[in-house]
Amino acid sequence: MRYFPDFCERAIPGLSWVVMTKPADRLLYAEPRPDGRTPYWTMGTIWAAAEGKPAVTVAIEDLNILDAVVWFGGPKQVEPTIRRIAERARDIFSADLSFPIIMTKGGDVLDGAHRIAKAYLQGERTIAAVVIDDYPPPDGVVEIPRS
Fold first, then answer.
1. Residue environment code for 50-71, b if the CB has 16+ CB neighbours within 10 A, otherwise e
2. Selection from 129, 84, 85 nearest residue 111 by Cα
3. According to the model, what pLDDT value does residue 34 have?
4. How many secondary structure helices (H) and strands (E) does the chain include?
5. Are 49 and 137 in contact (CB under 8 A)?
6. What is the reported pLDDT for 16?
7. Which segments of the chain have a pLDDT < 50?
8. What value, to the nearest 5°, has the Cα angle with vertex 75 and ends 50 and 106?
9. What pLDDT shows up at residue 104?
């Protein structure tokens, strides 16, 4: 299953998709299921799953996210416009490396793509990570209408 960590747009009933810039407002979307429903998790759920677990050191080059598309595409087919790339760059520059990333034992990064990008750009070889067994139960599903 392919995931879209740090995908930072949220549906607000009655309004169009709105960009949220605070990490706590971000959602993690799974790849759409065959029925068109896409599970999602709030960052609060991801952070709660990692709470109290020790951080370990992982090699950045070993993370499968480095060559993945995570901020573009997704359930809403977000295009990599100059504005959206600039927004991601701003988030990367302001990422706080004192917080560990959160990942599953299987290697999926659930939180921390901006921190990984910043560490990579700074030439770091490792990053702190909290490893959880698997994804927690999703907070809900989004139904994307099929064309």
1. beeeeeeebebeebebeebebb
2. 129
3. 84
4. 3, 10
5. no
6. 31
7. 1-21
8. 35
9. 94
100 half-sphere exposure, CB direction, 13 A CA radius: 20
Q: How far apart are CA 104 and CA 81, in angstroms?
A: 30
The encoded tokens of residue 27 equal 């959602």
**Residue given tokens 């709105």 in the structure block:** 18
pLDDT tens for each residue of 107-147: 999 999 999 999 999 999 999 999 999 999 999 988 866 65
**128, 61 contact by CB (below 8 A):** no
Residues ≥6 apart with Cβ < 8 Å to 54: 130
DSSP H or E segment with residue 86: helix 82-93
State the pLDDT at residue 12: 29
Place of tokens 């560990």: 100
How far is Cα of residue 129 from the mean position of the Cα atoms in its chain? Answer: 14
Alpha-carbon dihedral angle through residues 77, 41, 22, 17, given to the nearest 10 degrees:
40
